[in-house]
Amino acid sequence: MPSRHAVLRIAQYHLSHTAAEALVVRLLRMLGASRPKRGWHSVAYTLQTPKGTVRLQWSEMVKEARLTGGVSAIQTWLSSNNPLFGRMLGIATNSPNLSIEATFLNHKHRLKGPARSFPVEQELVGDVLAYRRLACESSDSDSFEETTRYFRSYLFSCISLIEAFMNRYLEMAIHGKDPDARIKELQQESRIENRILLWLRVFSQGEGIGNVRCTEQWDAFQKLRRARNSHIHASEPFFGYSIPKLANPLNACRKGIGGLLLLLELASGQQSTFLFERVATAPMVRFTKG
Fold first, then answer.
1. What torsion, rounded to 10 degrees, do the Cα atoms 194, 196, 201, 205 define?
2. Which residues pair with 55 in a beta bridge?
3. Residue 93, strand partner residues
4. Integer Rg of the chain from CA
């Protein structure tokens, strides 16, 4: 018989109302907007996008920021000048009579519909957030089978997101040119923690972020990496989980994945994609007795 309540509870929102308002103000200022005489709550901003004109109301922007950790229309527009991520568009079709095509540097695919093609980083951000939520929502079962299955998928997606981020920079660096010694070393390294340090040597601008290994983001990442490795290598003869202890690793993506990626993005000197803030503000998880 299932328990009456899920024992892993996930918060509804990414941000508090105050934090969401602060984020919306920051984004509006980045667009060049000034505070209206009647206050920010009176803002109605019109934005021209590839999909047409979008009119953004203050209350709707704050609501979206609370629920998702961002305002998609504004952040997509602001990140459009990012040479790595800004021009990557996703597309899907449910029609068997249509095909979709995606191209990035030397990579190209054409898919016959029904089909879907979206940037890998965007899909993995969605995976991280969805799997952790599903792990919590399914924790009303006495067996916890679905919870632990989603937890494993969450771990795999977390580390894959770090890999995908670094790989896109690497693809851009080697496009149309012979890789130098540092790039070759990065290509050949298999341990992800070493790859991050090598990546910083290649792509960090100026002083970068100093010694990333001294940050709380690195500590949280290492915990997730070790948990992922124990699963992917199947080093134990069984998978065992104490459900109350899952809350900490489910929350570790905030600093260990989203926070670390924001540090790496800052170190690279590129325009922010804003994508990783969604993971850095992922709704908190807590264990509660059913």
1. -170
2. 46
3. 115
4. 21
